[in-house]
Amino acid sequence: MSEEDSEARVRLRADRQALLTRMPDPLSMRLVLSETALRQQIGGYDVMAGQMTR
Predict the structure, then answer these.
(1) Residue ranges making up the domain that contains 14
(2) From CA 34, how far away is CA 39, in angstroms rounded?
């Protein structure tokens, strides 16, 4: 991947993140998840703990 492509991906990712944190109207979502999806362990304890704090 070229440096230009890498920088473009970083900019795109930052733009998407900005949508989630913009004020006064941040993007919001409502989801329905099964308990199984919440309890399914992906990765180790550290991975799961990191996901829960996010």
Answers:
(1) 3-53
(2) 9
